Amino acid sequence: MPALETGQVWEMANSNLRIGLIGKTLVHYKHYKGTSPRASVSLTGKAALKEYLVKHKAVLSKEKAPPSKSLTGRRAPTAVSA
């Protein structure tokens, strides 16, 4: 099994799982049906997520999903003139 990386999309029989942020031991992910990732963000341990992917015979998609707007960065501060 390949290492988990930010932006990976794993395809399963009825659903997809998109990896968000990865920490030392925890992973943020979205588990959704179809092609639109409109699910809430979930949090689990790396080992548990890998077991889940193996159990459900997940296949790594060839394309990485574009980063969501919430993960792309912060807005630049704007100058306020008085």
Describe the overall structure:
This protein is of the alpha+beta class and 82 residues long. The chain has a domain at 9-62: Nucleotidyltransferase, domain 5. Helix content is 12%, strand content 28%. The chain is built from 1 helix and 5 strands; from the N terminus they run ββββαβ. Strands 4-3-2-1-5 form a 5-stranded antiparallel β-sheet. The chain is globular and about 60 Å long. The model has no long low-confidence stretch (mean pLDDT 84).
Brief digest:
The protein has 82 residues and is of the alpha+beta class. 12% of the residues lie in helices and 28% in strands.
Secondary-structure map:
Blueprint: E1 9-11, E2 16-22, E3 26-32, E4 42-45, H1 46-55, E5 59-60
Antiparallel strand pairs: 1-2, 1-5, 2-3, 3-4
Compute the number of helices: 1
Order of helices and strands: EEEEHE
* Main sheet makeup: 5 strands, antiparallel
Q: Globular, elongated, flat, extended or rod-shaped: what is the shape?
A: globular
Strand arrangement across the biggest beta sheet: 4-3-2-1-5
- Report the sheet-strand fraction: 25-35%
Keywords:
single chain, 82 residues, alpha+beta, Nucleotidyltransferase, domain 5, 5-stranded antiparallel β-sheet, 5 strands
